[in-house]
Amino acid sequence: MSSGALPAGCQSRVVDVNGTRIHCVEAGEGPLVLLVHGFPESWYSWRHQLRPWPRQATTSLRSTCVGTAGRPSRFEIEQYRMVRLVADNVGLVAALGEQTAVIVGHDWGAPIAWTSALLRPDVFTAVAGLSVPFSPPSPHRPFEVMRAMAGDEGSTSSTSRSPAGPSERSKPTSAAGCSASCSPPPAARPAPDPAAGSIATIPHSAAMKDRFHRPDPLPSWLTEDDLDVYAEEFEHSGFRGPLNRYRNVDRDWEDLAAFRGASIQVPALFVGGDRDGPTI
Description:
The chain has 280 residues and is α/β, with parallel strands linked by helices. Helix content is 23%, strand content 15%. It has seven helices and seven strands, in the order ββββαβαβαααααβ. The protein has a seven-stranded mixed β-sheet. Helix 1 packs across helix 2 (109-119). The protein is globular and about 50 Å long. The relative contact order is 0.17. Mean pLDDT is 77; it is low at 63-70, 156-167 and 169-181.
């Protein structure tokens, strides 16, 4: 964790869960609320939500680890499948001395939170998702859907099995933590560049960074120091762990086949922002 990043009144610790080390930041007392971050983010994304009450814990997922905390050895792709992350959430609740929790997820963390509530309603008694609504396991294989979305941009090799690329090993820049929600309102955004690809695809001749618009100046709620925190955390491991989440979409589809068509059985809330890329 970056020096000086811990908010006042918060406690940082690493706990052993399911054979790996999970980093979490806690604040407050009372019933537990577990906050699950998105990609490319960390516990730091929830710094403004960490308050004295209720008891809250935000975790650095094994797929977005800090140093060695949360990183399975050798980065085996299957270690980042959805059922592993749900098991981490269940184990973390127990490691924090609780039997139940409310779970809240943003971006990639939202499907993890939804699935945690779907599979373990006895542990996660309520759920909220930000940016990404609940979607039950589909009858269609995800990678086939992605290929159809990509059209001519689609790759001939499956990303669920591909090895690490340069972007996963290279040192991230301070722009790593700048999310799509930094963007101005849709009417004020620059016209999209077709050569940069869509939200779901990257042409063979383009780079992922070409898809993102970085506002200048930054919005009032995001500083250069904040971006440096994200960059420092990802310098330890690069992006291979986070990208392994995407490599598991077909594996998740197979693992969750028994839950196709199932619905959330606990109280649920969805929140989407009008400037948030995934919900526009």
